[in-house]
Amino acid sequence: MATSSGWGARPIKPQDRDLICPICLDQLTVPRSLTCLHSFCTKCLSSHISKTATKVSGIHTFKCPVCQTVIRPSFGDNPLTSWADQFPIDVILASMTLGDKSATDKTCEPCSVQGKQLKAKYFCTVCKECRCQTCYEHHQSSKLLKGHKIVTVEEFLSDPAMAVTLAEYLTCTNHADKEYTVYCRDHGKVLCATCLEEGHKGCINCKEIIVHAKEVIKEQRTDKVLRKMKTLVKHLTDVCERKRQNMLDFEADIIKKLNEISTLRQNLNSIIDDLEIRVREKGKKVCKQQSMKRLEEDRHIQSVVAAVKNSCKQLEAISKYGSETRLCVVLQKMEDQLLAYQKRSTDFSEILKINIEINIPDFIRKNSMLSVADVSCTVLENRQIIPLPYDSMQFRSDEKAVKERHMRANETDDRHSYRKDRKKVSDRGSTCRDIVKVEEFKVHRPRIDMPPAYAAVDCLPDGKVVFLDMANSRCCLYDSCYRYISEYKLSSCPRRMAVDAKNEIAISLPDQMKIHFLLIIGDSITSKRIISTTRWCTALASLSNKELVFTGYDKDRYHWGIMTTDGQEKSCFYIPGHIMTPATGGTNVILNLLKTRVYISCYLNNAVYCFSLDGIKHFEYVSDSLKGPADMTIDMQENLFVVGLESCNIHQLAQDGSVLKVITDGIPRFPASICLNTSEKQFLLTSVDDTNRDTCFIYQLK
């Protein structure tokens, strides 16, 4: 809390009310800003959180003491005592309060309490007190205080706010008495000496932080991060404006429909009056609901905008006044914060377009004998996702990514090997018109003498890659740089898998009529449960945390349906007009982004079908040039990519089933499995060709 200090007390002026803590009613000390933009002393805020924090539905929350806004911190799983320190410092208020303190003479505060007036030489950024030479020596000899950051009075007077702020950035978050001295390129982290000794002994790409800082400045990463922060602020501001405009359009649409209703009032007074009442009530209800929702979303967006602007100011100040080492440390933290801000911004980028539809039969204008029940009023919601105006945190080109992965995979710096790798990337790109092969890597297979088999591939939300090695009955895990991590041995030959947002994998074992659920925790694969199925399931897709879409054979016909993760079947539909025996071909299934449509490929029929979740068929795509559709994936624009195993091509389909293009150049023989890595905007492709069955190819769309 704010307390009296040796800086010299002074009365609070009306223009300085912004510098007063609303809790202790004294001058702010280390002000922390909440998402509602109100600021409090760090100790006052910590005390308030400890007293008022509540837990509802497993989520810890507390209310702002001023505006009573419910604060839901992203670090809610941490101890309550550490919450206050994790909110951002309000640099402007800190500069104003500390700048005011710097206006008086500096005397040793501990000595002033004893009636002595000695000139201060040092300032403790943690205690917020000036000390003379003797008190400084006592301060340094204390076990509890020796880890505090000490600066000279001259350094503090030059920029008091920065002296306090930079002290936090330079101190290791895991070891309070240590400062950052090393940067690990393998993990992208700044380390103190203790961190290096405890967890990074095996890292081969560690260097002094001052050396890395010079590289950061040379690469101009500060300008890039600042540019992305400002772009994010502009993007979120545009989202708010478009949300507001949509509500205005909706209100205008209501007025338009009401005017149309008025033209029918002469012949259908009773019906039109009743319809008008229903439209007004429903429109008012929807407007109220959506307005409240929009205001809540706007508050969250404004909190993100304020946090990003605050980070921009800190980074600009540190870039201007801080040292290279400080800039390196702060920049690393800012990049991590920016990634978190970008993830939060995607939650607010959904634009809801609302229309009101009134179903009035055509004969209503001629026949007045019409009941009220024949007229209906429906509110339609159309959701649109506004993508970020840039690729999230993409600072490296494809060639640089190849170099980085190559350097990390080898313990020595083989320059000749890298030049060879770089040449291969350039050659591949020059021979493909539709896609560019940027990289390939070997799949970890213990027995490469096995006959060719499918090697299903999929990407996890965190960028890791999962392979199903059907020949060896294994599930293998690779990191985002396509390096082998671990594997799990399955009880029988797997066929297909479904990955959900919580890194849970459902693997079909058709030979045993079972589904094996695995869970990815860190770098390990653990078994969660195994369930039995009543039908022969070959392919799976994750509909939700509790539901799966499955395909398979039954009674010599293809079928698909929805089941729970406990094995209970909720629905089942047969594909009409296509009778096959279980031994003549396979199926695969994938969902669209909104999980409202099901796409199913039938291998021997050379066909792709699209159904709604209630079994209604939207389209059927059959082509002589698509032979043996083996796998599918879908991009962010809802374009479907179908791999033809026998035709060795990829068909790109639109949402209505029309073909956009057929990609043939650069595709390996007998492509079997495909998935889209959204974080890299790349395709991962496997093949059952005898020469490529242990290779995964990575493509980039032009």
UniProtKB/TrEMBL annotation:
InterPro entries: TRIM45/56/19-like, Znf-RING_euk, Znf_B-box, Znf_RING, Znf_RING/FYVE/PHD, Znf_RING_CS. One of its GO terms (molecular function) is zinc ion binding. Residues 403-416 have a biased composition (Basic and acidic residues). Residues 403-426 are annotated as: Disordered. Residues 21-68 form the RING-type domain. Residues 103-153, 167-201 form the B box-type domain. The keyword Metal-binding applies. Keywords: Metal-binding, Zinc, Zinc-finger. SUPFAM superfamilies: B-box zinc-binding domain, NHL repeat, RING/U-box. This is Uncharacterized protein. It comes from Sinanodonta woodiana.
